[in-house]
Design a protein that fits this description.
Blueprint (H helix, E strand, L loop, with lengths): L6 H21 L17 H7 L4 E9 L4 E9 L17 E10 L7 E2 L2 E5 L9 E5 L6 E6 L2 E9 L9 E11 L7 E10 L15 H8 L3 E2 L4 E2 L1 H7 L4 E3 L2 E3 L12 H10 L4 H4 L5 E3 L5 E3 L12 H5 L11 H4 L3 H7 L22 H4 L12 H4 L13 E8 L8 E7 L18 E8 L17 E5 L6 E3 L2 E5 L11 E14 L7 E6 L3 E6 L14 H8 L12 H7 L22 H9 L9 E4 L3 E4 L33 E2 L7 E2 L1 H9 L3 H9 L1 E2 L2 E2 L1 H5 L7 H4 L3
Helix pairs in contact: 5-9, 14-15
């Protein structure tokens, strides 16, 4: 620790250490509250026992005086319940605290904060423009009650006419600064809800649970990190209102955009799909320090129309989670459909809507058909439509698996309901879809097991009605290519494809939808040795935390164990990149995925050419804040980010500083893309191989998990 104190100070801190050590013995458990993603996990035991990292707020009560003075009692502790001091004199780290006081009027469903501020624009285009916004309290005072227990008196006083029968809430948010111990800053939030007349709380605002947001956002917190969880957001980010003598517009004075959560969150997640953005008007809000937050390029990985992904999945604890179904509003719907003019009826089948009273009459929760005007129907993810028959193909048996033999596959084919399916309903000859099988190996690393095919390590056959034998639901197929004569170990077969389905044929809603066939990946031994599946780096289910239903290449590829076959160390976009755009780009999965997810942080252009020689540029991709790309465990399984990487083949990276890189080097340089990082990797690679693990191995001083911890 880089801390200097006087001898008297050291005596004082030593005494504190002794006291805390004693309390530690009373409250500690054998299980650490920290994980490998926390900096505290790697601190020495003495520091942890002394500092007790973490922060917990707990509001314990309130008092409202006859003159409207509001007082709130609260405790500050570490995660084990040991008291902390605000000033950070007798316990490590100063603690800052702020408060919001708000009510939900009996005739309203949104919070209205008593505590407000006036924001004045200093942004050049609108300098001097003002707007009153909900905010934290100012001018209050503190009183210490006991160790770790305080009373705060609000600077704001309730008006004499405040409604004692309405729900009221106090939010406490703040931070603990442990930077002098190299343990960063801890954040916490607590919300205390009551009715001033003492009656039970019956009215709440609880549409979302933070767990739903954290599928993508990891640890939802904003405004520097001190506002933790979605519930505190709803106390300030509300529609405009009047309270007492104040009119609160809750707008951004710089851009005139509302900061009402209902509108703002929908617009942010709609991003590049907003009609207004597509018409050329960016969606921007100017925040602290005149930082312009522009969400015009946001692409929702789960699909912009997939309402249920946020409103239902992971949202079980929200008591009003069905509000989106039963209480549609112009604000919520018009946030995404911002080309609708409800006053005139433009883009609303010419029907004006002066209020929200009639919305639920037409937009019922669910109708009789997908793609109708019901809320669920209008927001169906096409591939998941109940009108689609779909298909499920599975490899039931693999025969003739010796080197030099042409394997024979037994494949079952069913629709989504489980009914047997005729191949003629699927194959390209009927114009209704595609079914293909891919052979690759060995599983230690795809890319060299099959040579001279132009595909860098795999064969693929498209199946036809004439190439299959059997009857409806069960078919056999003899692969066109033999297993290489020198094949050893475990090899792979994968089934992929899709159905092309015409839905609502003959109606105004007729459409052709590509519906993915779930990839089936099976392993087999070519030499009688034990079957060793391809190593697990990332699981498809983890990708689907954000991507909902990851499916690429025309819906054909939707399983990570299939993706790695083609996106192997030897693969580049050479087959699709125009010669004038040389050199080619690596599409090895580790390199490509890291570069995609760090797009906005990449110091160089990252463009991959795909089907139809189309350029796919990822330079604007950002992780959903406050999630960090350095949190490897958001994607990786079983700490698979640890070095050394398990691959055995060099990675072809023609546009990189190192054009043929070791597996670990290629993966790490995909994020750490500077010339300095490349030089470091090159200097630590010899004819014997990479030495990355010497410094970055799981137990080394600069282990991957350690340097990425927060």
């Amino acid at each position: 620790m880089r801390v200097q104190r006087s001898s008297a100070g050291w005596m004082k801190w030593t005494l504190v250490v002794m006291v805390l050590a004693a309390s530690t013995a009373l409250v500690s458990s054998t299980k650490s509250p920290f994980t490998q993603r926390d900096k505290a996990y790697y601190a020495d035991e003495a520091t942890i026992n002394f500092v007790r990292p973490g922060l917990v707020f707990k509001i314990t009560g309130h008092e409202i005086g006859s003159d409207g003075t509001v007082k709130v009692r609260f405790k500050i502790t570490d995660p084990k319940g040991v008291a902390l001091e605000r000033e950070g004199i007798n316990t490590p780290g100063t603690v800052s605290t702020s408060f919001i006081l708000a009510t939900i009027p009996n005739d309203n469903k949104f919070y209205q904060a008593y505590t407000t501020r006036v924001k004045t624009s200093t942004w050049a285009p609108t300098a001097g423009k003002q707007a009153r916004q909900a905010s934290g309290d100012t001018g209050g005072s503190y009183k210490k009650i006991a160790d770790g227990e305080y009373e705060y008196t609000f600077g704001y006083k309730l008006p004499a006419t405040y409604d004692k029968t309405a729900t009221h809430s106090i939010a406490l948010y703040g931070s603990r600064n442990l930077s002098e111990f190299e343990l960063g800053t801890n954040y916490a939030t607590d919300i205390y809800t009551f009715v001033p007349d003492g009656s039970a709380v019956s009215k709440v605002r609880n549409v979302f649970d933070t767990a739903s947001c954290n599928k993508c956002h990891d640890r939802l917190s904003f405004h520097g990190g001190s506002r933790v969880g979605v519930q505190i957001c709803t106390m300030c980010h509300t529609p405009k209102y009047s309270i007492g003598t104040m009119g609160v517009s809750n707008t951004n004075p710089e851009t005139d955009q509302t900061i009402d959560m209902t509108v703002m969150v929908h617009k942010i997640h709609m991003g590049s799909s907003l009609p207004s953005v597509q018409a050329g008007k960016p969606y921007q809000i100017v925040g602290f320090g005149n930082r312009v937050s522009d969400w015009s390029k946001v692409g929702m990985p789960s699909g912009a129309n997939n309402c249920q992904w946020c409103h239902e999945q992971g949202n079980d604890k929200a008591t009003q989670r069905d509000a989106w179904l039963f209480n549609p509003s112009r604000d919520a719907c018009g946030a995404c459909h911002d080309n609708v003019n409800f006053a005139t009826g433009e883009n609303h089948v010419n029907l004006p809507q002066l209020n929200d009273n009639q919305c639920k009459n037409c937009h019922i929760p669910q109708g009789e058909l997908d793609f109708d005007a019901s809320i669920k129907g209008a927001h169906v993810v096409e591939q998941m439509s109940s009108l689609a028959r779909g298909a499920v193909a599975a490899i039931e048996k693999i025969e003739n698996t010796q080197p030099g033999e042409k394997p024979t596959l037994t494949i079952s084919l069913k629709d989504r309901s489980g009914a047997a399916m005729d191949i003629k309903d699927l194959i390209p000859g009927a114009g209704r879809g595609r079914l293909a099988v891919t052979l690759a190996g060995p599983t230690t690393d795809y890319g060299t097991g099959i040579k001279g095919t132009g595909t860098n390590g795999y064969y693929q056959d498209n199946l036809t009605a004439t190439s299959l034998t059997g009857s409806t639901g069960t078919y056999t197929y003899t692969f066109s290519q033999a297993i290489p004569a020198d094949a050893k170990g475990t090899w792979t077969f994968a089934v992929e494809g899709r159905t092309d389905e015409k839905l609502l044929e003959g109606t105004q809603k007729e459409r052709i939808v590509e519906v993915n066939i779930p990839n089936d990946v099976k392993y087999f031994s070519t030499d009688g040795s034990a079957i060793v599946p391809r190593r697990v780096i990332v699981q498809t289910a983890t990708c689907n935390n954000c991507h909902y239903r990851l499916a690429l290449h025309g819906q054909n590829r939707n399983e990570i164990n299939n993706c790695v076959i083609c996106h192997n160390p030897a693969m580049t976009d050479a087959a699709r990149r125009p010669a004038a755009m040389a050199p080619t780009e690596s599409i090895s999965l580790a390199s490509m995925i890291h570069r995609i997810h760090t797009g906005a942080e990449q110091p160089r252009d990252f463009t991959v050419y795909g089907f139809g020689n189309r350029a796919n540029n990822f330079n604007d991709i950002e992780f959903p804040p406050p999630a960090l790309v350095s949190n490897c465990n958001m994607c990786h399984s079983g700490n698979s980010q640890n070095v050394p990487a398990k691959g055995t083949l060099p990675v072809s990276d023609p546009r990189g500083y190192i054009t043929s890189a070791g597996t670990t080097t290629a993966a790490c340089l995909a994020c750490h893309a500077s010339k300095d990082a490349a030089s470091h990797a090159l200097a630590n690679t010899t004819t014997l191989g990479e030495s990355c693990a010497a410094c970055h191995g799981p137990n080394a001083e600069f282990a991957v998990s350690k340097v990425h911890a927060r």
